[in-house]
Design goal:
Blueprint: H1 2-48, H2 52-57, H3 61-66, H4 69-80, E1 86-97, E2 108-117, E3 123-131, E4 137-144
Antiparallel strand pairs: 1-2, 2-3, 3-4
């Protein structure tokens, strides 16, 4: 009888422990999402203002290894120029991930915005901040659809 009560107690304690670990992980993901959203917002303000060289400097090291400042300037001018200025931007979703296709494992948040531009009524911007080697969240990818 005592042994059975002890086993049930251990199972309950194990379940509570697992629940606490899950809650802690969820809170960590939420904290990461908050920091990543802030980084994405600051970076997007640079891009919106046409400060492409500065946005490249503020991007993640992974981003900078994949594209030079000059290539970034050309790419973003070609992508954003025809659309005109941002009229509105609304968060669609943000998702924390440890892995992304074609990227090293790490801490990423894939953020999507519903964005309206002067010359394109509705678009979807995808911004992917990552926790860089120094622990700071920086944008590692940007895409407009």
């Amino acid at each position: 009888m005592k042994e059975e009560i002890m086993k049930k107690t251990l199972w309950i304690l194990a379940a509570i422990g697992a629940l606490l670990l899950a809650v802690a992980a969820l809170r960590a993901d939420e904290g990461a999402e908050k920091e990543a959203k802030e980084a994405a917002g600051a970076w997007l303000r640079l891009v919106d203002a046409g400060e492409y060289a500065e946005s490249w400097k503020k991007a993640a090291s992974l981003f900078q290894k994949q594209v030079t400042a000059s290539q970034w300037k050309t790419a973003v001018e070609n992508a954003r120029g025809p659309l005109g200025k941002v009229v509105s931007r609304r968060l669609r979703r943000a998702e924390y991930r440890k892995t992304l296709p074609g990227a090293p494992d790490g801490d990423y948040v894939v953020i999507q915005y519903d964005t309206s531009f002067e010359k394109k009524n509705s678009g979807i911007e995808t911004v992917t901040p990552m926790k860089d080697g120094d622990g700071i969240w920086r944008v590692s990818g940007y895409y407009i659809k």
